[in-house]
Specification:
Strand content: 5-15%
CATH class of the largest domain: Mainly Alpha
Helix content: 55-70%
Number of domains: 3
Radius of gyration: 27 Å
Order of helices and strands: EEHEHHHHHHHHH
Number of helices: 10
Shape: elongated
Largest sheet: 3 strands, antiparallel
Length: 274
């Protein structure tokens, strides 16, 4: 079973888009027409990634705390889908039908593809936990293990509800921390800019008075002057380095070798969420 992404017109002539699973392109077109949806374009998505046990360091590195805003999948969206899935299962919906119902409700195209692949894996006979474990960028090892426990005990809807509760509390805590750190971070940035201004423009003017008087300057003052001269010539480099460092770190953590090895060397103890 393949997954196709379509752009089509509904019975009212409104342009819509979504995903449909079918055996072939023609079968997908027929399936859409049976629902009074007339496809304009129908493109097959890539096959789902193979499952298997994920390396904890690799999963932690890929998930990467503190960089959620650079990801196309938001944790709040995963929380919302988890809550809705729990509600549907509690209402008696089969798991596959519940996931198929939730796919069009996700705002992220990437997350839509992931949910569609999870649904396909379930239809092919995989367990829900195994289907989720193939997508560590969206579902953490803790999430997968709790789902596995819920499947084993027959309480999947309860586990999903607790996962949603936990995720919502974590989001609230993260927002509170961000709000608490906003003012100190702002003050640190302003302080850095003021220090940069003093070293670049104010200090050279003051020290020029002493040099004009032919007074020998102490070693700390000479070091300060050297730093001031460097900043005056290369202030743009100082401003650019933190930004470059941030994006270099984000790029490196996407690699499959350097990132997990670095995490294992820096954190020999068990990683949170693994």
């Amino acid at each position: 079973m393949a997954v196709f992404e379509y752009t089509a017109l509904n019975a009212k002539g409104k342009k819509i888009s979504g995903m449909v699973d079918a055996e072939s392109l023609s079968a997908g077109q027929q399936k859409l027409k049976a629902r009074d949806i007339f496809p304009i374009s129908l493109n097959r998505l890539d096959a789902p990634a193979s499952g298997g046990v994920q390396d904890p360091a690799r999963a932690f590195w890929k998930k990467g705390p503190g960089l959620d805003f650079l990801s196309s999948i938001k944790s709040s969206e995963v929380t919302m889908i988890t809550r809705q899935m729990s509600t549907l299962l509690s209402a008696g919906f089969p798991l596959v039908k519940a996931i198929a119902t939730l796919v069009p409700q996700t705002g992220s195209k990437t997350f839509q593809r992931i949910l569609s692949r999870v649904k396909d894996a379930l239809e092919e006979g995989s367990s829900f936990a195994d289907a989720l474990s193939a997508h560590p960028q969206a579902f953490s090892p803790v999430y997968v293990n709790m789902v596995r426990a819920g499947e084993s005990s027959g309480t999947l809807e309860i586990v999903l509800e607790r996962l949603a509760d936990f995720s919502e509390k974590r989001e609230d805590t993260k927002k509170q921390i961000q709000a608490a750190l906003a003012y100190p971070v702002l003050m640190a940035v302003i302080g850095f800019l003021v220090l940069l201004f003093l070293l670049t423009y104010i200090v050279p003017g003051i020290t020029k008075i002493f040099t004009d008087m032919n007074h020998s300057l102490p070693a700390p003052t000479q070091v300060l002057l050297s730093v001031s001269a460097f900043l005056k010539s290369f202030w743009w480099l100082v401003m650019l380095l933190p930004v470059l460092g941030f994006f270099c770190f984000h790029f490196i953590r996407k690699t499959d070798r350097a990132g997990p090895s670095l995490i294992k060397s820096l954190f020999p103890f068990p990683l949170p969420g693994t």
